[in-house]
């Protein structure tokens, strides 16, 4: 059986949201070592909101992400470290610094209708010799034709992979199939998919993506990620192998990382709570969940009302400040 796709593990980046950006150097070393030993080809290390994300708006990192990237790289013999960069949060200098420390891949992320802001960062990724991808966040918010248009922009800037990103965990398998099939037909580059499990659809959506032609798939161990988390890497390895695909990842070794390294790091279980379910139902950015819970506590309002309102307002990543405004407004209502 030949290798069918690459799994990119996002535990050390999307998982940063779930641990409130508190990863330590020792934790990152242990995870990186385990992923490398298990044969995971790519894994991502950055603040949850990408390079440069450490701030009051997005949450301060306990440890400088460059230190974490350097530590992760030092544990890699076959794995390669990816970084995420959102133009406007991360800068070209942040990317140059990550590349100097040995990062080998960058995923430049924009809102699904704003791919045009990524041109310079994608071009820089290629100039630095990094594997370079475009990452269309909140893909549930745009129709197929818009996704194709935006993905073509990424490709024209030099992206080697374009990801459909279900940031809100709001998509159903047919939504994924329609988007990935259209991209597969219209683009020359590779197609990737990133899921969130807010409606318990992450695995089904991942299968739909692979069966529609996606060759780069994200997962996180124990689903450590924003909201209800991502497609669970170790489960994905088992499921896709049962379906006849080959992941080339050692199942026992990835389970060891899950049980011995990630499980003790988790601040709360990655389960579908009322809040995370509403993220998917209302179509809200998964990383808003912990902010909404904090605001709900601070203002004495129901987190579900905050999330429903954020969904109605069609808020997108970068509008974290609105979470507190909405909470304040709900007291007055
Ligand atoms: C910055 C976001 O957390 C990126 C991501 O993982 C998503 O949109 O989903
Ligand atoms: Mn995510």
TrEMBL record:
<feature type="domain" description="Pyruvate carboxyltransferase">
    <location>
        <begin position="5"/>
        <end position="255"/>
    </location>
</feature>
<feature type="active site" description="Proton acceptor">
    <location>
        <position position="17"/>
    </location>
</feature>
<feature type="site" description="Transition state stabilizer">
    <location>
        <position position="13"/>
    </location>
</feature>
<feature type="binding site">
    <location>
        <begin position="13"/>
        <end position="14"/>
    </location>
    <ligand>
        <name>substrate</name>
    </ligand>
</feature>
<dbReference type="GO" id="GO:0009098">
    <property type="term" value="P:L-leucine biosynthetic process"/>
</dbReference>
<dbReference type="InterPro" id="IPR017629">
    <property type="entry name" value="4OH_2_O-val_aldolase"/>
</dbReference>
<dbReference type="GO" id="GO:0008701">
    <property type="term" value="F:4-hydroxy-2-oxovalerate aldolase activity"/>
</dbReference>
<keyword id="KW-0456">Lyase</keyword>
<feature type="binding site">
    <location>
        <position position="194"/>
    </location>
    <ligand>
        <name>substrate</name>
    </ligand>
</feature>
<protein>
    <recommendedName>
        <fullName>4-hydroxy-2-oxovalerate aldolase</fullName>
        <ecNumber>4.1.3.39</ecNumber>
    </recommendedName>
</protein>
<feature type="binding site">
    <location>
        <position position="14"/>
    </location>
    <ligand>
        <name>Mn(2+)</name>
    </ligand>
</feature>
<dbReference type="GO" id="GO:0030145">
    <property type="term" value="F:manganese ion binding"/>
</dbReference>
<dbReference type="InterPro" id="IPR035685">
    <property type="entry name" value="DRE_TIM_HOA"/>
</dbReference>
<dbReference type="InterPro" id="IPR050073">
    <property type="entry name" value="2-IPM_HCS-like"/>
</dbReference>
<dbReference type="Pfam" id="PF07836">
    <property type="entry name" value="DmpG_comm"/>
</dbReference>
<dbReference type="Pfam" id="PF00682">
    <property type="entry name" value="HMGL-like"/>
</dbReference>
<dbReference type="InterPro" id="IPR013785">
    <property type="entry name" value="Aldolase_TIM"/>
</dbReference>
<dbReference type="InterPro" id="IPR012425">
    <property type="entry name" value="DmpG_comm"/>
</dbReference>
<feature type="binding site">
    <location>
        <position position="167"/>
    </location>
    <ligand>
        <name>substrate</name>
    </ligand>
</feature>
<feature type="binding site">
    <location>
        <position position="196"/>
    </location>
    <ligand>
        <name>Mn(2+)</name>
    </ligand>
</feature>
<feature type="binding site">
    <location>
        <position position="194"/>
    </location>
    <ligand>
        <name>Mn(2+)</name>
    </ligand>
</feature>
<feature type="binding site">
    <location>
        <position position="285"/>
    </location>
    <ligand>
        <name>substrate</name>
    </ligand>
</feature>
<dbReference type="GO" id="GO:0003852">
    <property type="term" value="F:2-isopropylmalate synthase activity"/>
</dbReference>
<keyword id="KW-0479">Metal-binding</keyword>
<keyword id="KW-0464">Manganese</keyword>
<comment type="similarity">
    <text>Belongs to the 4-hydroxy-2-oxovalerate aldolase family.</text>
</comment>
<dbReference type="InterPro" id="IPR000891">
    <property type="entry name" value="PYR_CT"/>
</dbReference>
<keyword id="KW-0058">Aromatic hydrocarbons catabolism</keyword>
